[in-house]
Design goal:
Elements (H helix, E strand, L loop, with lengths): L1 H15 L14 E5 L5 E7 L2 H6 L11 E11 L3 E2 L7 E6 L5 E7 L9 E2 L5 E8 L2 H4 L8 E4 L5
Length: 154
């Protein structure tokens, strides 16, 4: 019995010692984004400080189907997104001050220093990243109302 317990403890500790970054829902309470005009709900990690926004989803090897990241700013910005060291293809929906989607772009992973930047021609207050094609698959597009429900301490 002692050998079985020791083996289980060893396997558990070995599994915890991995270089794989956690998926977003493992690190923060769940916040959600809902989209008017569809039944789409996305569970998101909030990135609302410069460091979190800069890191984004870098290093994530797999993004679960209905999970993503919401990049939030205190006011309108005209920032761009860079896919350097991001390993999964993503789509990003930009949300204006009115709370509606103003554009959706598809972005490809990039491992070089010459990665393209992705942005739009008008200011936005937050942007939501999800797996490539998620917005199309869920009928989310320009003009749809967006509601971000932050987790109690998120």
């Amino acid at each position: 019995m002692r050998r079985i317990t020791t083996a289980l403890v060893s396997l558990t500790l070995l599994g915890a010692c991995t270089d794989d970054p956690p998926v977003p829902s493992d690190t923060h309470p769940e916040s959600t984004v809902t989209f008017g005009g569809s039944d789409a709900v996305l569970t998101v990690e909030i990135a609302d400080d410069p460091h979190e926004r800069r890191e984004g989803l870098m290093g994530i090897k797999e993004l679960p189907t209905d999970q993503g990241m919401a990049f939030v700013w205190p006011g309108p910005v005209d920032s761009t997104f860079w896919m350097k060291d991001t390993l999964v293809p993503l789509s990003v929906a930009f949300v204006g001050e009115s709370g509606h989607v103003i554009d959706v772009l598809d972005m490809q992973p990039c491992q070089t220093d010459a990665c393209p930047s992705y942005g739009i021609d008008e200011p936005f207050v937050f942007a939501i990243e999800a797996n490539l094609g998620w917005f199309d698959e869920h009928g989310v597009g320009v003009g749809d109302r967006v509601e971000l429900a932050r987790a109690p301490d998120g």
